[in-house]
Amino acid sequence: MQVGAQGGSAGSSASVSPTPTATPTPTRTWLRHISLTRADSCRIRRAIPPSRLGSTAGKIEDSPSLQFPGNTDCFRLGKSRYTATGIVDDDGITLSVTAVTNESLDSFLDAAVGIEDRIVRRLSIEGFRAVVARSNNPGACYGLLDVAEHQQVYVVLGQPYTADVGKVVVPRKKLCALVPAALTDALHAVS
To answer: Whole-angstrom Cα distance, residue 115 to residue 143?
Structure first.
């Protein structure tokens, strides 16, 4: 770029390289900001009606999140019982909810190996970005709801707990179909 030289004689010019500037990272915007810093994962979990998952109201438990350290998972284990004829008496789907306050949806997706092959759908829930994806576990599907900078609601729908670990009782396609409704209920609980 040609600019007038400073300190030189009038009318002279020198070629000066522009100062490199970093391209600003686009800032995500939300229709409204929902802070999860005081959100209770179990309160969110209770807002998802058991009937939506084909289960009865059962004991809801919490534990430190292994997926998102520093956050709490809240879950209800669905249970299946076997009759003498081998028929499963299904008491619902396992559902876990985590109000994540230290990782954005984008950074989670960037770190998840092979995630693009597992994404079932990208959608908007009341204006908030959401993703539904198949888990590495063949009996589970999860959803992520982007509610604020470095904050998301993470839900996992999985198999009823059985003595036969790894047995798929509920098809994953059905689990993935239920995720958007669970995310919508979770959004209503935090907004």
So the answer is: 12
CB 97 within 8 A of CB 186: yes
pLDDT per residue over 102-147, tens digit each? Answer: 998 988 888 886 777 889 999 999 999 999 999 888 888 999 999 9
DSSP the chain: -EEEPTTS-TT-EEE-PPPP-PPPPPPP--SS----TT--HHHHHHTS-GGGGT------EEEE-SSSTTSEEEEE--EEEE-TT--EEEE--EEEEEEESS--HHHHHHHSTTHHHHEEEEEEETTEEEEEEE-SSTTEEEEEEEEETTEEEEEEEEPPB-SSTT---S-HHHHHHHHHHHHHHHHHHH-
CA angle, 91 then 92 then 97, to 5°:
140
